[in-house]
Amino acid sequence: PDMYPGNCWAFRGSQGYLVVKLAMKIYPTAFTVEHIPKTLSPNGNISSAPRNFSVYGLDDEYQEGGTLLGQYVYDQEGEPLQMFPVMV
After folding, report:
1. Could you tell me the CA-to-CA distances from 77 to 5, 45, 58, 62, 85 in Å, in that order?
2. Which of 41, 63, 67, 68 is the 20 to 30 Å CA partner of 20?
3. Angle value at C-alpha 51, between 41 and 18, nearest 5 degrees
4. Residues 20-72: tens digit of each pLDDT
5. CA nearest to 33, candidates 17, 13, 53, 19
6. Looking at the predicted structure, is the pLDDT value of residue 81 above 90?
7. pLDDT at residue 41, as a whole number
């Protein structure tokens, strides 16, 4: 709901998974990722921001694998809100 440090989906360690279940099947054209800017970070760095990430389309939350929709890199020097087009 806001851009304050700590109000996020934090992952423990350097890897994590997030599953978002939607009410109906969609065909996405892009994804956005938002992280606080360095100026709002208490220590001036955003090393916790995602870097390399992949997005998969699943038929259900228990499916292993899925359809790779793209592999992306979040630019920590870029804008806080970044959009990534579907690559497949």
Report:
1. 17, 10, 31, 35, 19
2. 41
3. 95
4. 889 998 999 999 998 888 888 888 888 878 889 999 999 887 888 899 999 99
5. 53
6. yes
7. 80
CA–CA gap between residue 60 and residue 21 (Å, rounded): 8
| pTM score, whole prediction | 0.78
Task: Write down the domain spans for the chain.
Answer: 1-87
User: In the structure encoding, which two tokens stand for residue 59, read together?
Assistant: 């038929």
Tokens of 9: 């989906």
**Contact call for residues 5 and 41 (beta carbons, < 8 A):** yes
Identify the CATH number of the domain defined by range 1-87.
2.60.120.260
